[in-house]
Amino acid sequence: MEATDTAFRTVAWSGCQSRLLRDSRDREDLAAYRGQGGYRPLADADELLREVESSGLVGRGGAAFPLGVKLRAVRDNGRGAVVIANGEEGEPASIKDRWLLRNRPHLVLDGLRLAAAIVGAERAYVYVSDVDSARSVEAALSELDSLGMRVDLWTVEPGYVAGEETAAVRAINGGPAKPSDKPPRPFEAGVSERPTLVSNVETLANLPFLQRHGSAPFRAEGTALSPGTFLATITGANRPPVLYELPHGLPFAELLALHGVSSERVRGALMGGYFAGLLNRAVLDTTLDHETMRRFGSGLGCGAVSLITDDCPVAVAASVLAYFDRENAGQCGSCFNGTAAMAAVGGALRDSVATKEDLGRLRRWSVVLRGRGACATLDAATNVAASLLDQFPDEVADHLAGTCHDCSHGAFRADRPYQVEAVS
Ligand SMILES: Cc1cc2nc3c(=O)[nH]c(=O)nc-3n(C[C@H](O)[C@H](O)[C@H](O)COP(=O)(O)O)c2cc1C
Ligand code: SF4
């Protein structure tokens, strides 16, 4: 299945039936969604919770946390729960959440309704920053009589940290869309101090399939630890971005073939958006699932993969570190000082004016800054720094010596490397 209803193509893996993408150029309205069997009455919320648990569905927002565990924790934390469908998608190299919200808003709202029923919520939010997503959700809500609870659309200014779960809660509570210290986590005390489920919109979009078909058919695709299909935004290699729906566990080499990029050209990839750092050509031996990516010291995260072909990995890493320096929320000393220091060394290395001592400091920061700060932005920055040093020692040495061939005519520079333009 292939569609070009947006500026980028969407392609579903032909080996399995598409669950999330839709083979149409039009935004799916209520009649079309109902025609596909959407908004089925829910007879037994406990039974659906058990199906979610046995499905092994893990979150698609980046951390791959089991949805069933989160649902049960929020449900058990008492009455008056709140659900947030997180569609902020601060990751510049990802388009999947905006695609879902713009094209299949009812699929997301149906998932939100089912999650709310499981945790007993009477209040829900769709949290976005993209204007077209907001319009699409508004239109979808106006088509519906009721979802059995109050649903509000909550819009914020876009930002890398705005989609972090405590930032979403803080914004809805009337504060800035910036992370706050944990504990408490949202499932303990979130919106108005109530137990709050924050789930990525793609995660929620899997619930109608589970309601309709159950956990066994869900597990028919994917691996034991990463069941189901997932949305993958593939950028880089000087090609237009494509949004794929793929079964977890697909060999990376097969994705490359589908994308039409020769493995010979691939030097590596920036994984999980900007979060999981760089992988060298070892990426060619991976399969696209959370457990394999972890084994390779990387991560699938939100499913965004940027292929590095002609660009120099040192220059790519320098751009991403500079991005974190600009986009961190400026709240935690370790983070705004740490990202600034790592970005400075990254830039100096790209420009071949860094010293061995600078690299020693970058290495040390990539270890000691891990886990610091209110959110995981520093982890993302340390992932990029450490993976550059570990995965691309020859390129780092070339830059130290000023002999990088790729950068001799001007190094790769981008404010937001591999950003997917928000065109609809
Ligand atoms: C810096 C940072 C930014 C994040 N941005 C997003 C985002 O834009 N969208 C999202 O769904 N999750 C984002 N997350 C993850 C959320 O905190 C949270 O784990 C997620 O929304 C939970 O949904 P899931 O369990 O369905 O993945 C971010 C996390 C961090 C640390
Ligand atoms: S760790 Fe960084 S990005 Fe996260 S809240 Fe603190 S300053 Fe902001």
From TrEMBL:
It comes from Mycobacterium innocens. Belongs to the complex I 51 kDa subunit family. Residues 314-359 form the NADH-ubiquinone oxidoreductase 51kDa subunit iron-sulphur binding domain. Its EC number is 1.6.5.11. SMART domains: NADH_4Fe-4S. Gene3D superfamilies: 3.10.20.600, NADH-ubiquinone oxidoreductase 51kDa subunit (3.40.50.11540), NADH-ubiquinone oxidoreductase 51kDa subunit, iron-sulphur binding domain (1.20.1440.230). GO terms for molecular function: 4 iron, 4 sulfur cluster binding; metal ion binding; oxidoreductase activity. Keywords: 4Fe-4S, Iron, Iron-sulfur, Metal-binding, Oxidoreductase. It comes from the Bacteria. This is NADH-quinone oxidoreductase subunit 1.
